[in-house]
Amino acid sequence: MSIFTIRSLRPGDAAPLLAFEQANRAWFERHIDRRADDFYSLDGIHAHVAQFLDEHAQGRMHPCIIADEHGQLIGRANLKDIDQQQGVAEVGYRIGELQAGKGLATAALRHLIDLAQNEWQLASLCAYAIDGNAASIRVLERCGFVQGMAVPDIAIVEGKVVDGHAYALQLRSAGVDSAR
Questions:
Q1: What is the DSSP code (8-state) at residue 97?
Q2: What gap in Å lies between CA 28 and CA 76, rounded to an integer?
């Protein structure tokens, strides 16, 4: 695996984030819901970054970016829908096509688990995966997530409605070691 850094999203990340999303658009759309076309513009990405930073300031999200040793954006990872009263959040990650299969998604998810435990003091995490997305399911299971209930019509991928499953991780009781 190459050298990389995972850090919180910053306002200055908009232009590199747009380049990353544009370069990987077709790759992502083969695996997850497609984004609206206006997202793929400087105004669209600035609005996206501003929304994520606002949600972070309000304690509802922790958006992160993943950069390689040259500072090139190669992935994203987010804690979202943080509910501190309930002690839960949802995880999500997007890894660029050229970085897929190199362990980066697992490292990103372990980073989110560490944030959830140590910065946010959460008790559990949830995730959703489309049935048939074997790579994402492997990452979730490798990090201790357990498959839960089926979620019909979870997304539209390449014009087809697809089903998925919810996954859950109990943080404290799971004995998850984020340094694995």
A1: G
A2: 12
Say how far residue 157 (Cα) sits from the centre of its chain.
17
What's the longest Cα–Cα distance across the chain? Answer: 43
Q: What are phi and psi of 150, to 5 degrees?
A: -70, 145
DSSP code at position 98: G
pLDDT in tens, 96-117: 989 888 999 999 999 999 999 9
**pTM of the model as a whole:** 0.88
User: Of how many residues is the chain composed?
Assistant: 180
Return the amino acid letter for 164.
G
CA angle at 176 for the pair 72 and 120, rounded to the nearest 5°: 65
How far apart are the C-alpha atoms of 168 and 114, rounded to whole Å?
15
